[in-house]
Amino acid sequence: MLFVPNLLKGRVSVSLRIALYISIAFSFILLLISFLIVSSVHIFLLKESEQFLMYNKNIIINELSNSPGNEVEALTELSVSRNVQTSLYTAEGFLLFVKNEMFPETLISADGIEEIRLPDNHDIPENDHYTQEGDFNGLHYMVLRYTVHNLSIGNNYIIQIAKDLSEVDYFIAILYKFLILTNIAGLIIAVAAGFLISRRVLHPITQVTDTALRISEKELTMRIPVTGPEDELNKLAKAFNGMLNRLDDSFKRQNRFVSNASHELRTPLSIINGYIGILSRWGIEDPHVLAESLDAIRAETKRMASLIEKLLFLAKNADGGMQLRKEPVDMGILFQEIKKDSELLFPEKKFNFNIEQGCIVLGSKDMLRQMLLVFLDNEGKYCSKEGTVIFSLHRGKESIAVIIQDDGPGMEQTKIKYIFDRFYRLDDARDKASGGSGLGLSIAKEIIELHGGSVNVKSSIGQGTVFTLNFPL
Fold this sequence. Notes:
By secondary structure, the protein is an alpha+beta fold. It is built from 12 helices and 12 strands.
């Protein structure tokens, strides 16, 4: 049944192949039903014919029992059914009588009549019968032979009754033709219905295809209408729309990243170019201008190198090229180092460190230190001088928790989800004044995720901010 669709695979549309599958399956079912109908009707009609012969046999036996010694005369006067031949034999097989309604022109006589006859070598037990189908001179018939004992005169007779089955054959032939026409009509309807059903079923997939063809990098706003029951195609449309949402968000982030990166790199290059212009005019002759220009060029070059290094870190991790050599890292020791760094980098700020011993994380010591420095730098630059920053380290049942809490101005709930985006700034003016690039928290999050950890942020205006970092044991 799969042979024809497999031949057409790749040459016709999916909807037509589905229609063919439906048509072939429906045709097979129709043929099976037709076969069962014809077989059942044929068996039923044959059983009816056999019952008909048995009925005539009983009539003949009754006549023979009522006419001892006058069997032939009784049978001669007996009215038999149409399309029936009745024969009477002696036990030795001598034909006594034949009455033929299958051949109306045949005389009622015991001599010279061509009769339907069972094989002579077939023995029939007394008071038993034998039924058989056969052909005689092109005639399809059913014949019944019965041996009966006439108690009145002590003679045994063989009764033979044959019935013409041409009416049965004619009815079966008409039934065959009707079923053939019905199957042809059913096949046509199945092809049409299968094609329409497949088109309707595949309509959401067609919508997905059309939408995908119209989508480009500059046009990611198109979506597939999601209607109908919650079936597989509905889920496919939702999954496709979800993929488009993620792609749209990814492209927007990428475009924003490229734009911000270009801007961040263009600024130090513009400053360097400006100071080179100053030097080319009069800086070489003026020691003060020369020193100022060189210091500015050096600072901007350092800033640009730091920015490029951060960008390379993020790009390398995005490509899956970051190789992490894991080793047991004592977070308590890193906290002690960060505590010293806070005293050197931000002596005017108040930092408190709560360190629980025995907090070991499997990962890279350098990366984990870089992550902590990001949060230290972030709090040192943006927390007020009057505020307090608390770094806490705790060991739980399943994870190591690093908590960074401040009592600063906090941030709006709508902005929390963006703070780990590359180049995102809560306040552009404040970030530029502090020299921030907007990449620190992005790098910190990348490091956390590389170590199988997670980060959660809670903040509200005027209530400060809490960063909670969890690393698996």
